[in-house]
Every structure is written in structure tokens, then in C-alpha cells.
Amino acid sequence: MRQAEAHSSASRFWAGRRLAAGGAQAAVLAAAALVVWFAASNAAANLGRLGINTGFGFLGRPAGFAISQHLVDYSESSTYLRALEVAVLNTVVLALVAIVGATVIGFALGFARRSSNGLMRAVAAGYVELLRNVPLLLQLFFWYFAILRPLPPPRQSLSLLGAIFLNGRGLVLPRPEAAEGFGLVIAALGIGAVLAAAMACWLRRRRARLGRAPSPWVAAALPLIAMPALAAVIAGPPVAWDLPRLRGFNFEGGLVVLPEFVAMAVALSLYSAAYIAEIVRAGIDAVSRGQVEAARALGLRPATINAKIVVPQALRVIVPPLGNEYLRLFRNTTLAAAIGYPDLTLIFAGTAVNQTAQAVEVMLIVCGCYLAINLAVSAGINGYNRRIGRSYR
Amino acid sequence: MRRLLWILSLAVLGGFGLAAAQAATLDDVKQRGKLVCGIAPNIAGFAFADDKGVVRGFDVEFCRALAAAVLGDPDKIELKPFQPRDAFPQLQNGAVDIITGRFTWTYTRENGAGMSFVMIYNYDGQGFMVRKSSGIKSATELNGATICIGQGTTTELNIADYFRAHNMTYQIVSFAELDETRAAYEAGRCDAWSNDRNSLAARGLLLAKRDDHVILPESISKEPIAPIVRKNDPQWLDIARWTFNALITAEELGITQANVDEEKQKSENPEVKRLLGAIDSLGSKDGLSDDFAYKAIKAVGNYGEIFDRYIGPKTPLGLDRGLNRLWKDGGLLYSPPFR
């Protein structure tokens, strides 16, 4: 009975503590909300007094300016909202291309730094030190003008097979367009993929049981190629190519990769690769030497040791800082404004602010977009990290 | 990044800054003892550092004239150079008292952006610069051209209008910084470089081989260039407007920096006497001294003198007065009377 009483008084005590803590948190939250409310109403009052338009109504008005790269339909009569969409897409595409590039180069460099070849180690170390100790903005200008200056004007374009052209306006490629066979070929590809998966599964089991069978990879690839090929023969080619033609100042038609895009992608990839190389090197170093020695003792080949022993264990160390690096790369895309690549910062924090004079609203939109994109990347990285963390526990 | 910070600072000031952008700019300037002007970044003739490192030029003279009128000393100024897209937030959040830059007076800029344009001190029009080797003689031959421009200006909108009106296509490459625009054009990124014609003439001086390039004859727009002040201070707008009008009126009346003292002493012309503050006490109506116009003219000379000193035919820019002549000489400059 005594004990029960003591217990209940303790629980009352803890309940009281929890209530007090909860109250304190609620008070802090309320204070924060009050500050935000004060700032917002004060901003509205000040802007009103200055005679500056407020509100997000401008998003529905025509933007009136042109954008050099748009992945969705856009013209001068499109709305600011459409311009925002174009700008966000341009930023995302640039970041994705640069992330892939930086990851590939970074991993190669990271392994090169732990190579048995002295020359490779030295070159990789030199690369890392050079690239990460020069400001990114300078590298950006370097690549932009290094790419731009030697390129010829459109009339003297460098040409490959009369279909691909390179000049000072960019890289002009034939653009694929859906033709009559498109639907059927895509459907056949889907069926082929299902067949391939089933076949690979069956072959793998068979191999495990009998110890011999054709490689599942080679056999599975067969329906994946055969089915669409068959469909193309029946229904006609799936894509038609829109070939670029030289007319007047420049090429018309085709798909143009802007020099600004190339310079941004190259500079961001090479710069972030230097950091990723260090992250990868640290990850490799974190795998205990005994693991590699044991694998060697079993007679595994170096490539297999890397793929099956080192990388899976190193990933646990690599992924969290790698995620940070991706986020940093994303934020670094804002430097695109310096060389005229039409990203979110250039179009919205630049042109739209000036044309609408509604800096507060535009900057809120821009910050919100970057925040949302970065949170999404962050969530993806965290999810992946949880998965690989669990599977090796 | 720095630019993002500037704009965020505006958002924060908008949120918390009660003191920012208060109405009585004149009192602020007098109390500070210094006039703060926003100007264009390094542009030959209009705002550039001379061989002693002092920033001078056509635009700067108007800042100096206003400082002389308000504070009695043309050197009590602080100049803040801004890229075009940064200038408006800086004015709105009170970081500068006036922008004496290269900005075009438009409807939307004056309605809804919290800004008032003082008076037109430079009549300009948008034009194109191309390589002579391209053989282009007229803007109407630019169908399909790639055009480099500086961002955050009326330039982007004018080009869109002009090409649509003439049923032509174009590609635009816009840069945040004006120097990058020139560098990209020079490196062959674009067929043409577009800006206000006077600005093209000024910035074109920085091209490695200026003689390989030519400015096309057409003006595709009206570009009335005017200083800008905050909208919530009518008194300050009046002060700036009439100080600049005084410089034009001085040219009409033949008053120069050299003879202003003599004119003030001896002139019997009532117009001259009113302008220079010898009769009627015009200045005191605006919270200024009676001789504010005298001080401004004494400091920088009349409009024609300023033009000839920095951007006229005898300067490296070699601009013709053109539309910027006085009305009685066939131009558009016309000051309302001092009465």
C-alpha cells in the first residue's frame, strides 16, 4: 500500500513535470507565432505606406520576357506562374545532371586515391586539392569562357554526320519525336520487361539448384530487345528525328543544349566531385583491412572485393555526408545567374523582382521552392540511409 | 549570394524596420550631412572612376548638384553602385536617397512599386550592336538572331515586343551582370548585344576591338532616363525635380558655371534673378535656401556643360546631343518656368 502510494505520487510528479514542460513549449511556440504575425502585418503596413503592390496576383499576369531554355511550352505571353515552372524545372534538370556527373567522377577519384598505382594516387590527390581550393564562381567563369571562346559561329559549325552540330550557340542535336509506332513499341517494351524479370528469376533459381544454367542477365535481355524490335517491324519506327537545319543566323529545329547549361553542369560536377572523392576515400578507409585481407585469402578478384566487400560496407559511412554534398550542389546552382543560365534565381529572384517590384513575395516564393526541393532531396537521402543501415546491422 | 542577402534584408526591413524609408528624406539628409545616391556600376561617361579613383560622370553630376542645393557642398555625397536589378529594393528600403542611374521611366515602375520618377534627364532609345563582319545594316535583318542582354531591365520586354511586332523570332541570353553580357557577346555567344543606345556606346568602349562592331541605326523603344525617389515623400520629389530643372533653365538663360557669380550680381533679367534667388525666395517654399539653384549651377554647371564634359562629341563617347538638345534648338529638353 505504501509502495503504491509512493508510485502514484511519483507518477503525479512526472505528470506535473510533463505538463510544465508542455506549457513552456506551448509558450515558446505562441511567442514565435506572435513574432511572425507581427513581422507579416508590419511588412504589409510598411509596403502599403510605401505604395508598393502586395499579394500574389502577379502570378496570373503575362510575364512578357523570353527564357532561353524551357522544357515545357513557354512564350512571352505565358504567365509568371508558368515562368516559375520553367525556372524550377531548369534548376532541377541542371542539379540532377550535375549530381550524376559529380557522383561518377567522385567515386572514380575516391577509388583512385586508394589505388595501388602511385601515379593515379598523385593525379587524384592533385585534382582534389586544385578543385576544392579555387572558388566555384571562378571555375564557372573559366569553363563558360573556355567552352565559349573556341567554338565557331553557326555558319562554320563543327558537324558530325550532318545531324549533330556544335557552335557558339550550343550543341544542336536531332530531336526525337513520337511517330506512329510509338505506342505499340512502348507497350511491347513493358511486356518484354515483365517477361525478362520472370525469366531472370527462373534462371537464377535453376542455377542455384543445378549449379549450371545460362547467365540470367544475358538470357533476360533477350525479350527486352526482341519484343520492341518485333513491334517496330509491325507498327513502324517509334520515333522520328527532327533534324536541325541551318537557316539565317542559326539552326532551326532539333534539340539545343545551351553552352550555359554545359558550363554549369561541368563546373558543378567537377567541383562537387572533389568533395565526393574525399567522402568516398574516408568511406573506404573505414572498412577494416581485415575484411579485404580475408577476401583476398578466399581468392576473390580485386574487382569483386570492391563490389561485394568494400563498397557495401563503405556506403554506410559515405551516404550521410554524400547527401550533404548533394544539397550543397543544389544550392550552388544559384550561381547560374552569373553566366546567364535561366535558373530559378536568374528568372525569379532576378527578372521577376525587377518587373513586378514585389521583392517580398517573389523572394518568399523562391526561398519556398529551394526549401521544398532540398527537403525532398534530404528525405530521399535519409530514407536510403535508413535502408542500407538496417540491412547490415 | 550577396544579392539574395540584399533582397532578404529588404524583406526583414519590411518586417521589422520601422525606421526604414521614413517620409522626411530632406531632414534625414541634412542630419546625416551627406546625400546617398544609387548609381550604375562603372559605365564610361555616366559613372566611372577617373585616374585618381574618384567616381565621376554625367549621372554623378546630378547627385552632386542635388547635394550642393541641399547641403551647400557638392562633395558631401556617397555613391552606391548597383546592378540594375538590385537598385529598386535598395531605394525602397531606404539605403539610398535617390537613384541617379540609367533607369527608364515606365507606368508600372511608377505605379505599384513605391517609386516616383523625378524628370527626364536623358532621352535614349534601345538599340543593337552587331559585328561588322555579319553584314547586318538594320534591326529588321535580325530575324532568328541570338541576343545578349543585361537582366532586370526594360530591355527584355522591349525586345519581346519589337520581335513580335515585326513577326521575327529570336533567342535571348540574359545575364545578371552587365560586364558579363559584354564578355559573352564578345566571345561569340550572341549575334547582337542590346541595351539603351547611349549605354551601348559607353559600355562598347570596353570591347577589345571596338572598330569591329557597329551600333545599328534603329531605336526600337523610347527610353526616357530619369532619377528615382521614393513615392511617399512629395517634398523630396519637388526638391530633386526643381534642382534638375534649374540646370536646364540655366542653359536656356545662358548661365554657366563660369559666369553664374557675375549673373547673380549684375543681371537685370528677372528670370535670371528669380532662378538664382536674388528675388522671390523660391527655395524657402521647399525647405531649401533661396539660392539652391545658384549653388547647384555653381557646383556642376548647366545641363549642356555637364553633357559636353562627360558624354558629348569631344569625349571618348562622342554622343550627339540629339533629342537631348534644348527645345529651342530642336530637342526635347524643356523646363517648366521658375515663377
Could you characterize what this model shows?
The complex is a heterodimer of chains A (393) and B (339). Chain A has eleven helices and eight strands. Chain A has 393 residues and is of the alpha+beta class. Among the domains of chain A are: 80-146 and 257-391, MetI-like (MetI-like fold, Orthogonal Bundle), CATH 1.10.3720; 178-234. With 339 residues, chain B is an alpha/beta fold. Chain B has two domains: 2-9 and 22-123 and 225-329, 3-Layer(aba) Sandwich (D-Maltodextrin-Binding Protein, domain 2), CATH 3.40.190; 126-221, Periplasmic binding protein-like II (D-Maltodextrin-Binding Protein, domain 2). Chain B has 13 helices and 14 strands. In chain B, the strands form five sheets. A five-stranded mixed sheet of chain B has the order 10-9-11-8-12. In chain B, strands 4-1-5 form a three-stranded parallel sheet. Chain B has a two-stranded antiparallel ribbon with strand order 2-3. In chain B, helix 9 (234-252) packs across helix 12. The radius of gyration of chain B is 21 Å and the shape is globular. Classes of the chains: A alpha+beta (393), B alpha/beta (339). Chains A and B meet through helix 1, helix 4, helix 10 and helix 11 of A and helix 1, helix 4, strand 9, helix 6 and strand 10 of B.
